[in-house]
Every structure is written in structure tokens, then in C-alpha cells.
Amino acid sequence: MRTPIRPLTATPLRALRNLGILAHVDAGKTTLTERILFATGAVHKRGEVHDGTTVTDFDAQERDRGITIFAAAVSCDWDGHHINLIDTPGHVDFADEVERSLRVLDGAVAVFDAVAGVEPQSESVWRQADRHGVPRIAFVNKMDRAGADLDTAVASIKDRLGAVPLVVQLPVGREDGFTGVIDLVRMRTLLWDGDTRTEGPVLEEWSDDAAGRRRLLEETVAELHPDALEEFCGASELSEETLVRALRELTLGGDAVVVLCGSAYRNRGIEPLLDAVLAYLPSPLDMPPVRGTADGREQERAPDPAAPFAALAFKVNSTARGRLTHLRIYSGTLRKGAWVRDAASGRTERVGRILRVQADRHEEKEEAMAGDIVAVVGLKTARPGATLCAPDAPVLLEPPSVADPVVSVAVEARLAGDTGRLAAALARLAEEDPSLVVRSDPETGQTVLSGLGELHLEVAVEKIRRDLDVEVNVGRPQVSYRETVLRGVSGVVYRHVKQDGGAGQFAHIVLDVEPMEEGGFAFRSTVVGGRVPQEYARAVEAGCRDALAEGPLGGHPVTGLRVTLTDGAIHSKDSSEMAFRTAGRFGLREALRASEMGLLEPVAEITVTVPEDGVGGVLGDLAARRGQVTASTAGAGSAVITATVPLAELFGYASRLRGRTQGRGTFTTRPAPLAPVPTAVAQALLAR
């Protein structure tokens, strides 16, 4: 049974931190979050992942599977500051949860395993944070594990992430003997015995190493920071004040990453990490004003409680309290009972209640101000990515991007009477998770659920069964193939002429089609002399984009081509944008049928950790799955194999790997670029 959560205090903007915990699966994110809540007094008893008693992994599936599936927000106070913290998933199938969280966060703590260092999903979430410009500090966790090595983990951060690591702590003791850290900024030793922490000067046996590491830290900071360089050149050292200021500015600018270490499970290193969060990660006032558009013009909204209200919805879920819409407030003040406008739809709704979110528990508030993260009850139509603003001061903020689904399954209600309930359940799932797509197959009439991976779909289906009480039958997963142009054609002429009384339709176009190696779609017009006016050329482009939905090989979406409109003709009365759009659609379809086309398939990079005696069987199985091994390293009794494997060949791989390694093998995956399907395989697929 979990302990009650302590009420939180109101905090001004300068003392507010909005941060996420990012990492590869099983690096210790949830345990770290739990220890942070315990250290700050937000909970009075530590929860454990293996016991299913953590605050943030409150969903039944998370407890059963022992992994984080849904991003969960919690709050706590530390040293006069208020921290809004989001524990994000570490599995690649739930990367969209991370994406939506990063869109609204100001900073992050990246957690790395002290033995494994940077793992595949560590790199993926790091790149996501790069795209959003989120400042980070790093926490090397599990320093008490056999084989833990801070220097090796830091080297992987530098080599694989391209970051400049600034190590501000040294471990005291190794593996089971890890008892504390040496703070290189304040030159002190922090030791833990159970929940008791003691502080003192640097131990004599560590003094030379600590002095050398402090010197290296100062030199690296001086190379990166002009003010620090000036002081270092004059005094041959940096003061604590200058070093802290430089570390903060380098972190905020994304020029370097501060590295700390500890063991979350043993509750060692948590308090210094919290101090580092306050010292180096930004408050909302340190972030640039959020940008949006209104009436076609760009606007900025500063984090000012007195400014017009603007917020971004990043998560929607249904609870016993009702439909919760999670918001990051960027400007203004939101009060209970206020009316807000969905900037995209123009719909205005009333906020019934404002809640401070504590995972699956909530504390009611009368108001929330700029910089805060809260949930509201009462909004019926707002979806993740929606901008909510004051009705008299509209602004549209950029929503988080949504990944394209790569795996699909057919679903149907087991009982005919549950068909309507299944449709409602699927609609609710798609509303809460934008990376889930529900559609009806026009050929078979089946309902198809698409997502980011096999586990993603398993969780969604189990949620229908368990939470929504609908029994479903599920078909075998199918991947989303793409078609591409291998060799194009030139001078394809298409005339669209239609005359059925009244104004007719006329469009004459000439198209060239060529491959585009970088993927995607590009369109240009080289028509001169006004033979095809610009507005009609744009209509041709729109028609070509319509034609990309279904390719000539198997009806799959088309990518990787460049279309050039080289010539055309118009009619003084019968030409229109609609006519040229129709010509573009059918003209490109005809050009694709004349081109040499190929099939592309989604590919995953898979990293398999396997005992030495199972390497041969695993390599053989990967080869049978059309896998290409790219790297293989051997360690103490185990091997790590990295390979690229077609996603279609990975279904059921978890069970096969367990069988071949007596349950000792593990693997992780992450998306890789689309790859051509071998000719024989493509022929077999298209013959089905």
C-alpha cells in the first residue's frame, strides 16, 4: 500500500522546474523518481518496481510488465523550489509519450546504466531532446552493480551522443563497496549509510585523484566558457561561484552536460542530484518565450501570469474523476470555471476543475499560473497537441509531432453485440494516444489498429479487454510497406477533359518523375510563358500528393520521388484548380505505372544481449529473419549483437529468443530507415 502524498506549496516562477526523466528501458528511471519523491518528503515510504508499489507506475499493465508505459507526472518541493517531474517510458514502442512530454518540458535528467552506458533507446531519447532544445544533466545510475564504471559510461556519452560531459562527481568505492560520492565543485565527500547522509572533507586517499579531476573539470569549462577562461588564465583556477555559473550557462546553452553518479535503488546520490537540478536546469523564466501564430502572424507569449492565457495540451486520459486534459501553461493564469478556446477548432469550453497531478492521485487547485503543469476536468473535445487560449486573445502553438505507425493488427469484437462498444473503445484509445490509428480496410472491411510496435499494440488491446471490458479477437500483426520509384519516366502527358453541359473541365499537363534518394516527395514547376499559371501548378501538386496514397504495386503509400511539371495548357473557360488537381492525381498515377517501382519495408536496429553459449543459435536465427549483423562485442560471459532486421520478421522474436537462451537473452529495438525489400520477397508479398 502506498503512502499518502504531502500537499505542495505555491512557488514563484524563478523557483519552478519542469523536468523529465529520460532513459533506456530498465536504466532505473522509475526507481529514481520514487527516490526523489521520498527524499523531498512527497511520500513517506519508498515504493519498488518489483513490488508494484511505485507512485508513477500505477497502471495495472505497468505493474504486471515491470516497465513504464505511460508518461506520469508528479510534483515535489526541494530547498524552496517546486519541481514538476514527468517519468517517461524507456521502451521504443512508447516513444510518442516521450515526444509529447519533451514538447512541454524545460529540462531533463538523462539516466544511464553504469555498466551498459549509452544504450539504443538512451540515444533515441537524447536525440528527441536535441530536437526540442531541452537542456539536460546526466545521472549515471547503478554504481553499485558488478562491472559499474563511471569513466566507461562517460566515454560512451561522449562517443555515442557527441556531447561534452562535465563530470562533477567521483564515486567513493566500487560495485558493492559504493558508499558515496566526492563533489568536485565544492570539494567535499558525501557518504550514505542506509538513509543517513554524512558530509565531510575529501578523504586523504582520494585527495590526489579528486584534485586532478577538479583540475580537468576547470580546464574543460574554461575552454568552453569565455568568463571562466578569463578567470582561469588570471588565477590558474576557478572559484566555486564562477564554476557553478559556467556549468549552468553551458547546460542551458546545450554546449555541455553535467554528469553525476549514484545508486537510486540504494538511495545514494539523490540529494546532490536534486541540488544539481536546481543549480543547472532552467526555470520557465530561463526559456525563450513560446512562439505561435494568430491571424497568420507570428506571436510570442512570455511566461507572465498577467499575460493572456495560452497552454498546450500534451496528454488526455480518462479516470474515475472524468476526462483529464494535461496542460503546460505558457502564459497567463487559468482559474477554475474559466472559459478557454481550442485555437485549432475554434470551440470554447469551460474548465470545471484544476488538478495538481500526482500520478493517479490529484489535488484540487483554484488557479494555475504560467510555467505550471496541471490537469483540468471539463474539456470534452481537446486532444493531445491542442492549443488552449483565452477566447479574446487566440494563439496557435506548434503541436508535438506524431510518429507514423509501422505495425497493424485487425481487431474485431468476439461477441457480435460488442461491436459498437469496441468502436467506442478504439475511438477513445486513438483520442488518448495520437500514435494509435484506427481505420477500416476498404478491401476486407476489417477494423485495423496501427501503432509503433508489437508491444504498443499488445498494450492497447489489453487496455480494451481489461479497462473497457470488451473481448476482442486479434489478427496477426502486419507492417506498413511503402512503394518507391527506382527508375522514373519523362514526358508523361495527361489531358483531363470533361464536358457534360454547362462549364466543362480542361487541364493538360506534362510530368517528369525521378527517384529521390532521401525519401519523401518534392514537386517543382519549370513551365514558362504562363502556359500553366502558378495557382494551377499548386493544384497539380495537390493532386500529385493525393496520388501518393496508393501505389501501383500493392496499393501502399508512395515515397522517394520528385515530380516536375514541364509543360501544359489551359482553356480560357473550362480550366480550373479542380480540373488541374484531378489531372495531377491521375497523371501521376499513370506516370507511376510507367515507372520502375520497388517496395520498401520498415527496418529495426536490434541489440541482443546473449550468453556466450547461445551466440551461434542467435546469429543463425537472425540470419533466417533476413537480419544483417552490424556489430558484435564479447564481455564477461556474454555477447552483445547489433543487427538490422526487417520489422515483419521480428514478430514473436521475444519468445524465440527466450527459448534459444533458456530465458537469459534480452533484446531492445529502435526504428531504422526504410530499406528495399529483396525481389523474391517482394514478389511473394505482392502475390498474396
Automatic annotation (TrEMBL):
Any one GO molecular-function label of the UniProt entry: GTPase activity
InterPro entries in alphabetical order: EFG_II (IPR041095), EFG_III (IPR009022), EFG_III/V (IPR035647), EFG_IV (IPR047872), EFG_V (IPR035649), EFG_V-like (IPR000640), EFTu-like_2 (IPR004161), G_TR_CS (IPR031157)
SMART domains cross-referenced by the UniProt entry: EFG_C (SM00838), EFG_IV (SM00889)
Domain Tr-type G, residue spans: 14-285
Main location: cytoplasm
Gene Ontology process terms (BP): ribosome disassembly
Subcellular location: Cytoplasm
Listed GO CC annotations: cytoplasm
Keywords recorded for this protein, A-Z: Cytoplasm, Elongation factor, GTP-binding, Nucleotide-binding, Protein biosynthesis
SUPFAM superfamilies linked: EF-G C-terminal domain-like, P-loop containing nucleoside triphosphate hydrolases, Ribosomal protein S5 domain 2-like, Translation proteins
Binding site for GTP: 23-30, 87-91, 141-144
Organism superkingdom: Bacteria
Entry similarity comment: Belongs to the TRAFAC class translation factor GTPase superfamily. Classic translation factor GTPase family. EF-G/EF-2 subfamily.
Protein task: Catalyzes the GTP-dependent ribosomal translocation step during translation elongation. During this step, the ribosome changes from the pre-translocational (PRE) to the post-translocational (POST) state as the newly formed A-site-bound peptidyl-tRNA and P-site-bound deacylated tRNA move to the P and E sites, respectively. Catalyzes the coordinated movement of the two tRNA molecules, the mRNA and conformational changes in the ribosome.
Name under which the protein is recorded: Elongation factor G
